[in-house]
Design a protein that fits this description.
A hairpin with a 4-residue loop joins strand 26 and strand 27. Helix content is about 20%, strand content about 30%. The N and C termini lie far apart (about 50 Å). Helix 6 packs across helix 11. It contains eleven helices and 30 strands. The chain is α/β, with parallel strands linked by helices.
């Protein structure tokens, strides 16, 4: 996955400080290629990618047999990096010797493929070779593979590709094209071969990388995706050779954006990143069912079925595809809890397939306080993550007329009443939500050209929670993206602003349906105390001092008054304090007196 830098101190990971610009690992692995993107779908390629919107990622290899436990010590972080100097820093000879005992006798290709199908996923992408250099298929050009080097002596990739074909699923491979930590000349690998002869990237590329790309694109049937990763400073002409070979052997395949040099067919966001706003063109986000991509013995921090669905629906609503990872253990088993969560969320998708398959991005271009929206031609599907207790659901800014509103429960439909209230559409809901996970309301519109005012609005019941600075106007300061690791390789991403103590201003334009008092929280991170001022365009303000901590968290500022309904500007400034204190979001909750 994303190349991980050697951090200067462990605290940097925990506190979310900006990663050191000069870190050699980051420069070597990513270079200037991490944002490659194609904005249109190449003709005939990636149909399941664009229509299916949901896929299974699988990280499985020698590292799975370690499970982050090495010589009696547990290493917390993503397990496929256990060999690396930032984790257990295992001797390469010792690591290669693990193959002699690697025997995933429980591996069942049909069981895994069936799980993906039951989960509602439309294709599988699995690691054919990760950074450790071990091939999980029968490579003829290098013996360090699961058939020739292990007692298992079978090609599980052949079995899985055939199982996917039988079940009507697409299939694809991940391949680490730049990094190879065990082959001489590969990035991160030894500089000399076993005889002491110097080796370079050229040796690795033509002796192993290019031949293995030929193998995986020639011997496993039709494919959907070839997922290249971490291009770093691999020469551009090498990447072009790989992409040309892939497209020659697999004319309908899509190559991931992480191929490098803008040579991929679509964009891949940062690991574990769900965007806040719609993104044009073909793109995906890749995420994990727990915290690690590969199997880690301790990692039971599973996403619940509802969380999986929320991340999936939100990704689709932003215009993208969601690829969710599982990490089988050293015996080839996917953990039972991950299976249970995937199957439960899959049953929901079976009930509401139009929310996922073929669905297009939300006309609002961002999430709403109670959930999110996708579009299918002249139908809007409102996915209600948080069922309102008032019996009313408030939809802001809809300008196109509605023909029919139905509350769905699988194939059953219940007609709903609604009314227009200025710029709001208000739906009358039953007190009990029809679905335990996420309920769905179907709007049949007068036209498939749905027009909306997509300004951010405060829900009369919920308010607005964690409204990112990404949606604000700034004066004298700038929004930047902060990324950090909670554990090694477990990435978090937040948009924020610092140096507000030098006169900067952050202003949100928000639509208030109701006047009244609103409780304000600011989501901040930093060191020491700061005085915050929040004011409205009606000349009301509140001011308070709060201490920030090293982790982002909400800090209460107080109650503020809104006199009239409609559009208002809320401005935040900082009166003194530490310039490194970051502001990421504002929360406004209505204060009820009855």
């Amino acid at each position: 996955m994303k190349i991980l830098v050697k951090l200067l101190v462990c605290a940097a990971m925990l506190q979310g400080v900006t990663l050191p610009v000069g870190a050699q690992d980051m420069k070597d692995m990513w270079g200037t290629t991490r944002r490659s993107v194609t904005t249109t779908n190449p003709e005939g390629r990636g149909q399941l990618f664009e229509w299916g919107n949901y896929a299974m990622f699988i990280h499985w290899g020698l590292y799975s047999s370690i499970g982050n436990l090495w010589n009696g010590n547990t290493y917390y972080g993503i397990s496929e990096w256990i060999l690396n100097k930032n984790m257990a820093n295992i001797d390469r000879t010792e690591y290669r010797a693990l193959a002699k005992k690697f025997n995933p006798k429980d591996f069942d290709a049909m069981k895994i493929a069936q799980l993906a199908k039951d989960a509602g996923m439309k294709y599988i992408v699995i690691t054919s070779k990760h950074h450790d250099g071990f091939a999980m298929y029968h490579s003829k050009c290098n013996k360090f593979n699961i058939v020739d080097a292990t007692p298992f002596a079978r090609d599980p990739m052949k079995e899985l590709s055939e199982a996917c074909k039988k079940l009507g699923l697409g299939f694809g491979f991940y391949y680490s094209h730049n990094q190879d930590w065990t082959y001489p000349g590969g990035n991160g690998g030894p500089a000399v071969d076993a005889e002491g002869n110097p080796k370079t990237m050229e040796n690795y590329f033509f002796e192993k990388c290019l031949p293995q790309i030929e193998e995986i694109t020639s011997n496993y049937g039709d494919m959907e995706i070839i997922w290249l990763d971490t291009p770093g400073r691999i020469p551009q002409d090498y990447v072009k050779k790989l992409v040309d070979v892939i497209h020659k052997n697999q004319p309908k395949v899509l190559v991931s954006g992480r191929a490098g040099y803008d040579l991929g067919d679509y964009r891949t966001l940062d690991d574990m990143e769900i965007p806040l706003e719609n993104i044009d063109g073909l793109w995906e986000t890749v995420d994990v069912t727990n915290d690690s991509w590969g199997y880690a013995w301790y990692d039971n921090n599973w996403k619940s079925p509802k969380e999986i669905l929320q991340y999936l629906i939100t990704t689709v609503a932003r215009g993208g595809t969601y690829m969710l990872n599982v990490g089988p253990d050293g015996l080839g088993n996917i953990p039972e809890d991950a299976q249970a969560a995937l199957k439960a969320s899959g049953k929901w998708i079976q009930k509401y397939p139009n929310v996922i398959y073929g669905a297009k991005a939300s006309p609002w271009k961002h999430a709403l306080p109670w959930g999110d929206i996708v579009q299918q031609q002249n139908k809007l599907y409102l996915a209600v993550f948080e069922w309102p207790t008032s019996g009313k659901l408030y939809l802001p800014g809809l300008q196109t007329g509605i023909k029919v509103v139905n509350l769905l429960n699988g194939t059953k439909k219940q007609r709903l009443k609604y009314e227009k209230d200025d710029s709001w559409t208000v739906f009358q809901l039953p007190s009990t939500k029809p679905d335990a996970l996420i309920s769905v309301i179907e709007l049949t519109m007068d036209s498939d050209d749905v027009q909306v005012d997509n300004r951010q609005s405060l829900d009369p019941e919920i308010g607005v929670r964690n409204m990112s600075v990404r949606f604000a106007e700034t004066t004298g300061c700038e929004v930047y993206k902060s990324s950090w690791m909670e554990k090694f390789g477990e990435w978090k991403h937040v948009y924020c602003i610092n140096k507000l103590n030098k006169g900067g201003k952050v202003s949100w334009t928000l639509n208030f349906k109701n006047p009244g008092r609103y409780h304000v929280d600011l989501n901040v991170r930093g060191d020491g105390k700061s005085v915050w001022r929040v004011e409205t365009d009606e000349q009301h303000f509140i001011q308070n001092q709060q201490r920030a901590s090293s982790l982002f968290c909400d800090r209460p500022i107080g109650w503020i008054q809104i006199d009239k309904p409609g559009i208002h500007v809320i401005t935040v400034t900082m009166q003194g304090g530490d310039e490194q204190t970051d502001l990421s979001a504002i929360t406004l909750k209505p204060v009820f007196f009855e």
